[in-house]
UniProtKB/TrEMBL annotation:
Source organism superkingdom: Bacteria
Organism: Chryseobacterium pennipullorum
Sections of the chain in a coiled coil: none
Xref: SUPFAM superfamilies: Nucleotidyltransferase
Protein name (Swiss-Prot/TrEMBL): GrpB family protein
Database matches in Gene3D superfamilies: Beta Polymerase, domain 2
Length: 204
C-alpha cells in the first residue's frame, strides 16, 4: 500500500474546534484538556486528513468514564487496544456520511467492530484519551510545539514523509516503523526543549 498525504489545510483547525465543542458537551463533567496533535495540528506539514485529538483527564481512573458518555454519537471505541496500551483509550470519529455505508451511529465495543471501519476514508478523527500526568501526554504536546517552533525540523519531517510516501508498505504500522527513528530522536529533543520552556510547571 501507498501512504498518501494532503497539503496542510487550514480547515483542519476548524474541524478540531467543532469536535472539541462536541466532546465538551459529552464529557465536560470530567474537565478534560482537549488538544489538537499530530501533523494536522502543525501549519506547513502535509498529512493524512484525519484529525488527531488528545483528551487529557486528571487521573487514569477517569479513562473508563469516557466511553459510556460517547454512546449515541458517531464514535467507535477500540477497546481491544487497552491491553497493549493500558494508559490510553482509543476512539475514531466517523464522518457523518459513514452511516450511508451501513455503519451504526452508536459506539461499538471489542469484537463488534466491522472490518469496514478500518477504511480511513470514512474517519474524520482519531481520539486518544490519556491522563495529563502521563509521560505520553507530555511527549505528544512537546513534539507538536517543537515542530511549530522549529521550522528546520518541520522541513526535515516533511521531506521524510514525502520520501516515505513513494514506497510500498504492508500497512500503516509498517509505515510508522519507517518514521520511527526520526520520531524517537526528535521526541527526545522536543521533551528536553519543552521542559526547559516550562520550568515552572515541570521538575526537570
Amino acid at each position: 500500500m501507498r501512504i498518501t498525504f494532503e497539503p496542510y489545510n487550514p480547515l483542519w483547525k476548524n474541524q478540531f474546534e467543532q469536535i472539541k465543542s462536541e466532546l465538551e458537551g459529552s464529557i465536560g463533567f470530567l474537565c478534560p484538556q482537549i488538544e489538537h496533535i499530530g501533523s494536522t495540528s502543525v501549519e506547513g506539514l502535509s498529512a493524512k486528513p484525519i484529525i488527531d485529538i488528545m483528551i487529557g483527564v486528571k487521573d487514569e481512573e477517569d479513562l473508563d468514564k469516557v466511553p459510556p458518555h460517547l454512546r449515541g454519537k458517531e464514535y467507535v471505541y477500540y477497546e481491544k487496544y487497552n491491553d497493549d496500551m493500558p494508559y490510553r483509550r482509543f476512539f475514531i470519529r466517523l464522518k457523518d456520511t459513514a452511516r450511508h455505508f451501513g455503519f451504526p451511529d452508536h459506539i461499538l465495543y471489542g469484537d463488534d467492530i466491522p472490518e469496514g471501519l478500518h477504511d480511513h476514508s470514512i474517519r474524520i478523527a482519531h481520539l486518544h484519551v490519556i491522563s495529563t500526568s502521563s509521560e505520553h501526554w507530555l511527549r505528544h504536546i512537546a513534539f507538536r510545539d517543537y515542530l511549530r517552533a522549529h521550522p528546520e525540523v518541520r522541513r526535515e519531517y516533511q521531506q521524510l514523509k514525502e520520501e516515505l510516501s513513494t514506497r510500498e508498505w504492508f500497512d500503516g504500522n509498517d509505515y510508522n516503523q519507517g518514521k520511527d527513528p526520526f520520531i524517537k530522536r526528535e521526541e527526545r529533543n522536543a521533551v528536553q526543549w519543552y521542559l526547559a520552556q516550562h520550568k515552572d510547571s515541570y521538575t526537570i
